[in-house]
Amino acid sequence: MSILNLPLREQAAAIASGDADAGELLDAALARIEERNPELNAIVATFPDESRQMLAAAPAGPLRGVPVAIKDEWPLPWRGERLAAAVQLVPTHPGESGPYRALRDAGAVIVGVANMHEYGAGSTGTVSVYGPARNPWDTERCPGGSSSGPGAAVAGRLVAGAIGADGVGSIRYPAAYCGITGLKPTFGRSTMEGHHIPDTTTIVSGPLCADAGDCRLLAGVMFGQTLEAGSASGLRIGLLAGAPWEDCQPEVKAACEAAVGELRAETGGETREVEVDGLDHVLISSILIGQGEDLTALSPARLNTLPDDVSLVARALMKYRLLVPAAAMARAGRVRELVRRSLAEVFGRVDVIAWPTVPAVAPPLENPTVTLPSGPRPADYANPRFTGIANLAGNPAISVPVGFGEGGMPVGLQLMAAWGRDELLLDAAEALERASGRRHVEARPALAAA
Questions:
Q1: Can you state the percent helix, strand and coil of the chain, rounding each to 5?
Q2: In the chain, what's the furthest Cα-to-Cα distance?
Q3: Which residue in 80, 111, 235, 345 has a CA-CA distance of 20 to 30 Å to 88?
């Protein structure tokens, strides 16, 4: 078996012990990208010379010699970020972003830039100047966005780990759609230097990997500290009534309910029904705040000069942002305050809150709509209802694969914890993996099993 098929942490251990050659691993990763990426369009740029230079200079860090991918949202010394868009609203330049430096200092080798949804403004990954990335489980379906390329690259085993960014769920959507694990860190805990929205209050960098152990390692690199494993014994699991559980495809609900039962049994824990104030307003508030943070780069004159190769949806959305009244933004801020206070109270009574990451499995690329008990919905409407709360409040959240739904497509369970309790989420995710015999985190699409 190729070492490239091993988890991120096992690749690092094999290189550190001398059982594997880092140069051979890099060559294998580049070859696999060349072989598999035409079906996935997950990686939009490789740079063998620069990757080999990173390897030659790699320090003896926790990821020395391990190939990883990084979303097209971060500048590299030899390439500016392009946000999968034909035109940049803010000038971008090559540079040493925080995620780049963190990976470099850990000894990792950036093997490619990963695709994303245009400007990061979508949960499906259907729109990109490079063409959409594709879901390895079914290449005619959405991989999730906006970190579509990192999700597809990890699920397709082009790399064992990738760095994405999450502003309204953009790490957790592809994790759920592609059957992998994705951690949205506590706001401010992961490195963000060099991001094109320097004053963001919602976006975080974070890992997408096959399992929680690899996410723990890669998140620690982004945090600049070792994330110690602990115990999830006696886990108190909060369950929200209403839409997060009821307005889902039946297979999604069933898989997530079964996973919660397994997690409760594995940890000797309990479930408690909880309520969060302002939940009905989280969708619009998280989108208003998240989508309004780059308004300083927009003006009517600038938007009217955007060429047709910027998607019509993106141009319309940016113009709409300029028309949002200040009162709406102020009200969104009040909802944020209400939700933060409510969550602080709830997390005094439970350790995590659990609900499906997204209400439906990955829809077709050609028609990204989902059918729910409430009726047919655009995926971009349905998905943020379940994820935006963590960005609005700043809390950490993780998506863990827990089964399969319609068409054999993956299902993800989301766990959210109190501010700063990222390690607890990883402990809980690992407990869930043990409870399921790791059958979901080790499942691979046919494309990746070849």
A1: 40, 15, 40
A2: 61
A3: 111
